[in-house]
Design a protein that fits this description.
33% strand; alpha+beta; Jelly Rolls; 249 residues; 3 helices; 10-stranded antiparallel β-sheet
Length: 249
């Protein structure tokens, strides 16, 4: 799908005070290792091969040959109503001003994400190439029905694309939103990076620096391929939300 605007950004949408409040809230929850293809986050193209990364990115991540890499981060989940009241008006603004005007009528839980750089362990937080979801009926969430749906995962998680929240049934991710919560002076790297495809008219890969200022927001169609480049110093805190609607038709 070709759009006039591939993404929309709002500088300093959220105040530093609210950013700090969100970080405090996110850290107060039980942080867990981020996963893909699970009940907490359903993605397409979850894994990234070494061949899909630039040589500089491979070096930063200390990758080993013949292995698959997904992501290295920690997350917690936020459902506080005041967060939706604070943030969804900006998403509606972006949806309108970017010309998408996608129909959406719900949203998932907020994902608070922590990307750390640990020089002692030679590890840098990152998220490999992926899209947040497709827009067709095959990508829609399905109700989990014990005994009829595929079995639970070994860790007790729901099977891929299955949910218990009936308000999400039959819907797909249409818009994705991310906010940088802490000052960019506290970390290096950790930029959102898009892949607009080999036949795009202009720049294929675009690394966003527009939203590095604290509280800045980027909204984009959920089918867009993207990644988070390695955090090579410090810690980056971000907040993510996926907005849901009926499949495109």
């Amino acid at each position: 799908m070709i759009n006039e605007f591939s993404y929309y950004w709002i500088n300093k949408a959220i105040s530093p005070e609210n950013c700090s409040k969100i970080i405090e809230l996110g850290l107060s929850k039980n942080l867990e290792k981020a996963v893909t293809n699970g009940n907490t986050e359903i993605q397409n193209d979850q894994q990234v091969s070494i061949g899909e990364l630039t040589k500089s990115e491979q070096k930063k991540l200390n990758l080993k040959p013949n292995q698959k890499y997904e992501r290295d981060s920690q997350v917690s989940w936020l459902t506080e109503p005041w967060l939706y009241d604070l943030i969804t008006p900006f998403i509606r603004e972006a949806n309108y001003k970017a010309g998408w005007q996608y129909d959406w009528d719900g949203a998932e839980n907020f994902q608070f994400t922590v990307y750390n750089s640990d020089k002692e362990k030679n590890k840098n937080g990152f998220y490999g190439w992926h899209s947040d979801g497709g827009g067709c009926h095959f990508s829609s969430y399905k109700r989990y029905i014990p005994g009829l749906s595929p079995p639970l995962k070994k860790d007790g998680g729901l099977p891929e694309k299955h949910i218990k929240d009936l308000s999400m049934e039959g819907k797909v991710r249409k818009l994705s939103m991310t906010i940088n919560l802490n000052p960019s002076s506290e970390y290096e790297g950790g930029n959102l990076k898009f892949d607009f495809g080999p036949h795009t008219d202009g720049e294929r890969f675009h690394e966003c620096t527009e939203n590095r200022e604290q509280g800045s927001m980027i909204v984009f169609p959920s089918y867009t391929h993207h990644c988070v480049t390695p955090v090579t110093k410090g810690t980056r805190y971000s907040l993510v939300l996926w907005c849901l609607g009926r499949p495109f038709k």
